[in-house]
UniProtKB/TrEMBL annotation:
Name of the molecule in the record: Exosome complex exonuclease RRP44 homolog A
Entry GO terms, CC: cytoplasmic exosome (RNase complex); nuclear exosome (RNase complex)
Record family assignment: Belongs to the RNR ribonuclease family.
One Pfam family from the record: PIN_4
Source taxon at top rank: Eukaryota
Domain RNB stretches: 471-807
Alphabetized PANTHER family for the sequence: EXOSOME COMPLEX EXONUCLEASE RRP44, RIBONUCLEASE
Organism encoding this protein: Sphenostylis stenocarpa
Protein location: Nucleus
Protein's UniProt keywords contain Magnesium: yes
SUPFAM superfamilies associated with the record: Nucleic acid-binding proteins (SSF50249), PIN domain-like (SSF88723)
């Protein structure tokens, strides 16, 4: 049956045109019930003999998705009109409901009511779209009641009073979510209910405030019409709010990939916005651009305070910071001011589920065993969340997940609801899952749609691949890879052989994601490509890896394993013996790796003078070239920085850490790194030359003087002068920063690293060429090309390179500048979260390791604060605070019996009997303690 839908549309020229769309209605759309005597039941998804079939409206799906995901909810019909509405309003919830509908273990069925002859309805005159959709839901429910002939109860679940009233008048069974959940006689399910914002009053009484006397804490959010107008006039600024991971009272609004950010100080100025929200911000008057910050070490107890006066350990978290300095008067003055503002409205919420534990509220349980509690997220950026629960006693020693429902302007904290329990606090598996959830790492299994994009196994290079004129057969070359031990997702392989004229030909055989050649297997817009784009990067934890791509690709088809033929994208240089590049070319290729070496194995080969086999000789030749390339980079001003990378030895059975120590960098590591850097620079030049307005590049902003101030202050305190006028000057200064302590130089380099902002991806059209510069590498252009198995940025760059060579067409996404910018922003977000997850995994396993191993060791003081100092433990790569006394509010200079000399970076007793200075060696004791129940932490104390 054909139904025509007509509507009028205004063109850009101002003309009004009538448009007609054909809407086909069918009578062969089935109900999904296996017991139906009318429909084809081959595709049935509901139970064979259910007592009730539920039909849910749009708001129930949007607001109660946590309930629907619970196993207690089944035999649910999701109407196509509901799916479409949810898709338009909340993509994250849409993905979750679609996952339920495609899960073969759940009884969810999608009914295409908009295309069924008996359930499609026409719009009525004067009827709003929302009313029309509600009517369509009621019509579909009524059809199910009649269609199934009363053999089963069909129940409409809606919290819309008007929709429920009309349903009852039309003879439809309808209930609210809460009444239905109560009928299930599972009280714990009530914890999952999302409560309307109006119910916040009940919880606010915890603060002994009567509803009529509740005071307004936050400014009212501006309506969208006013926000839109303000954005258009330049009064407001739109951007994503990013809260400082180390200081939850400091946040930024703006594009990280482009810069130009507004800093937001304090929870009141954040005005109920969460990290990740799209917000509208307004600038404060310029005389308010400076903010007082404390120079004390912020402890966990500080999270309960209202004052926004905490300075966390300095870090290159998300953007350049204003570094406070204490003047001779005892006041804390900002070295320089940055544009500061406040949030005036929320354009799009980023609320999701959060991991943490409960603090019980100091009040008796309410009616029906309901208790009130404050949820404390493991993520310090998230404020405490009020919840109600009927299972408080069972949850106090558990890590749980909580979702946010609302945040009233009269409430100090947002309100939310319990979602599920992860496990016991302190359990390794529980805490590992927390690390992944709080860093928004997608660990869901790859969907059937994604897996359907993979080629069948075993996969072999085909005759078509070998005969393809765009692909060069390089199987005859001696190719090998050098990677960390146990590496299975091998991205790159090398070869080097002497040419007759004495030059070396060096090729970096780089695999793209999925069999190296993305255009063969991962097409733009496919489920596999979309999934990789969203995940952004593989995530490496101490004991496991979360892949960006399915394992058949990462460990087999795409991995350049030894003794198998694989497809590659090759960069081939011709170099002189002095590492001067004569020519560079790119080609798709077929290779066959001869060996997959670890860094240790490669280093052992190079060091053993008795070995003269081809691989070892090639390694030595490449190492000779790499050293010259490295020296040339350093002469240009590239920085040789350092980080505290930790390596664990893990028990293969229990997965507990057996040993811990600093990761050792060998010449073999630097050899591989040098050719990877060179390839990335070469490819950046190639793609930008061909596509100046849509290339994905990577930049490292030059640090400001203010960012480097902590490093300069520390250096001055130990008698060092560092020239920071350029990267070259800083590199030379770091080379000369040596002392009697062999670890001194590395410590200075670690401190220098922490003063840098992070490198970020960006679209070339968003910035001017001088801003493309990569400060750390002293390179005018840089990108990521060498790890497409585990980074989606490299996949994009492979597509750009292939198009620049005429091998393939440039995908349509490269025509959309805004979409490219959004992709860059997501890649920066995913890359940063992967780093945080890796660090959190190290912290977790460090805690597990020292739980039964109290240890005395040596540490270096790296930061002086008014109530103590931070130390770095070289042996274990650990940093933490040592408290000398509790800092007194309003007194940064004097704290108990200690006096802080900011200029000399010392903290000393008032009687002069004891003092500590930055970079000083101290003996410490490390032990796992529980200052609060079920919250273990590694405590460092002076011996």
């Amino acid at each position: 049956m054909l139904h025509n839908k007509s509507f009028v549309k205004k063109t850009r020229a101002g003309k009004v045109m009538k448009q007609v769309r054909e809407h086909y209605l069918r009578d062969d759309i089935y109900c999904g019930a296996p017991f139906c005597t009318v429909c084809d039941t081959s595709g049935a998804r509901l139970s064979a003999s259910p007592s009730t079939i539920l039909i849910v409206d749009t708001n129930v799906v949007l607001n109660q998705i946590d309930l629907l995901e619970n196993q207690a909810f089944d035999n649910i019909v999701v109407l196509s009109i509901v799916l479409e509405e949810v898709k338009n309003k909340n993509m994250a919830v849409y993905n979750r409901i679609r996952a339920l509908c495609s899960n073969s273990t759940r009884k969810f069925f999608v009914f295409s009511n908009e295309y069924h002859r008996d359930t499609y309805i026409k719009e009525m005159s004067g009827e709003t779209k929302n009313d029309r959709n509600d009517r369509a839901i009621r019509v579909a429910t009524q059809w199910y009641q009649k269609h199934l002939g009363g053999t089963v109860k069909v129940l409409l679940i809606t919290n819309d009073k008007e929709n429920k009233r009309k349903a009852s008048e039309e003879g439809i069974f309808a209930e609210t979510v809460e009444s239905y959940v109560k009928s299930l006689d599972q009280p714990d399910l009530l914890d999952l209910l999302v409560r309307p914002a109006s119910e916040d009053v009940e919880m606010e009484e915890v603060e002994d405030l009567r509803p009529s006397k509740r005071k307004v804490i936050y400014l009212e959010h501006k309506p969208m019409s006013e926000i839109t107008s303000g954005l258009h006039r330049g009064i407001y600024h739109q951007g994503k709010l990013r809260v400082n991971r180390y200081n939850p009272f400091e946040a930024y609004v703006g594009r990280e990939s482009i810069g130009d950010e507004i800093v937001i100080y304090g929870r009141s100025n954040m005005n109920r916005a969460f990290d990740g929200d799209i917000v509208a911000a307004e600038l404060l008057p310029q005389d308010q651009w400076q903010e007082v910050s404390s120079l004390s070490i912020a402890g966990e107890e500080d999270e309960d305070k209202d004052e926004d006066v905490h300075l966390a350990p300095n870090s290159a978290d998300v953007a350049p910071r204003t570094i406070p300095q204490q003047g001779s008067s005892g006041q804390v003055n900002a070295v320089s001011s940055r544009p500061s503002g406040r949030i005036v409205g929320i354009i799009k919420r980023n609320w999701h589920s959060y991991c943490g534990s409960l603090d019980p509220m100091p009040m008796p349980a309410g009616s029906g065993g309901i208790a009130h509690a404050l949820f404390v997220s493991k993520d310090r950026r998230i404020p405490k969340i009020r919840i109600q629960t009927r299972q408080l006693e069972n949850l106090l020693d558990k890590r749980i997940i909580v979702a946010v429902d609302s945040w009233d302007r009269q409430s100090r904290y947002p309100s939310g609801h319990y979602v599920r329990t992860i496990g016991e606090i302190g359990d390794r598996d529980t805490e590992s899952e927390v690390v992944l959830i709080e860093n928004d790492i997608n660990t869901r299994p790859f969907s059937s749609q994604v897996l359907a994009c993979l080629p069948p196994l075993p996969w072999l290079v085909s005759s078509e691949d070998l005969s393809n004129p765009i692909r060069q057969d390089l199987r005859h070359l001696l190719v090998f890879s050098v990677d960390p031990p146990g590496c299975k997702d091998i991205d790159d392989a090398l070869h080097c052989h002497a040419l007759p004229n004495g030059n070396f030909e060096v090729g970096v055989r780089i695999l793209r994601l999925n069999i190296a050649d993305v255009t063969n297997f991962v097409h733009p817009g496919t489920p596999l490509d979309d999934e990789a784009s969203q995940r952004g990067t593989s995530v490496y934890l101490v004991e496991r890896r979360i892949d960006m791509l399915p394992k058949p690709l990462t460990e087999d088809i795409c991995s350049l394993r030894s003794d198998v033929e694989r497809l590659a994208f090759s960069v081939i240089w011709e170099m002189t013996a002095e590492a001067d590049v004569i020519s560079t070319r790119y080609t798709k290729s077929v290779i066959k790796s001869s060996a997959a070496l670890s860094y240790v194995e490669a280093q052992a080969r190079m060091d053993d003078s008795r070995l003269m086999d081809s691989i070892t000789v090639d390694l030595r030749n490449m190492n000779s070239l790499a050293k010259k390339m490295r020296l040339r980079r350093i002469e240009r001003g590239a920085l040789t920085l350092a980080s505290a990378e930790v390596k664990f030895q893990i028990d293969t059975e229990t997965h507990d850490p057996l040993d811990i120590g600093m990761y050792q960098i060998r010449e073999a590591n630097q050899l591989v790194e040098e050719f990877m850097l060179a390839a990335n620079v070469s490819v950046a030049q190639q793609i930008l030359k061909s596509f100046p307005f849509c290339s994905l590049l990577r930049r490292h902003p030059t640090p400001t003087r203010e960012m480097l101030e902590p490093l300069l202050q520390t250096a001055a305190a130990v008698g060092l002068h560092l020239d920071v006028s350029s990267s070259k000057a800083l590199a030379d200064s770091l080379d000369h920063a040596v002392g009697d302590d062999p670890y001194f130089n590395k410590l200075i380099r670690i401190l220098a690293t922490r003063c840098m902002s992070q490198a970020v991806y960006f679209c070339s059209a968003d910035l001017s060429p001088p801003e493309y510069h990569h400060y750390g590498l002293a390179a005018p252009l840089y990108t990521h090309f060498t790890s497409p198995i585990r980074r989606y940025a490299d996949v994009i760059v492979h597509r750009l390179l292939a198009a620049s060579l005429g091998i393939s067409k440039l995908p349509s996404v490269f025509q959309d500048r805004l979409q490219l910018t959004n992709i860059a922003d997501n890649l920066n977000y995913r890359h940063r979260n992967a780093q945080y997850a890796g660090r959190a995994s190290v912290e977790l396993h460090t805690l597990i390791y020292f739980r039964k191993r109290p240890t005395d060791t040596e540490a270096r003081i790296v930061k002086i604060r008014s109530n103590g100092f931070f130390v770095f433990v070289p042996k274990y790569g650990i940093e933490g605070p040592i408290y000398l006394t509790k800092a007194e509010k309003g007194s940064e200079k004097r704290s108990g019996e200690w006096y802080v000399d900011e200029q000399q970076q010392k903290i000393k007793k008032m009687d002069g009997s004891l003092s500590y200075s930055v970079l000083q060696t101290v003996q410490i004791h490390m032990e796992v303690v529980e200052p609060q129940p079920n919250r273990p932490k590694l405590q460092l104390t002076l011996i």
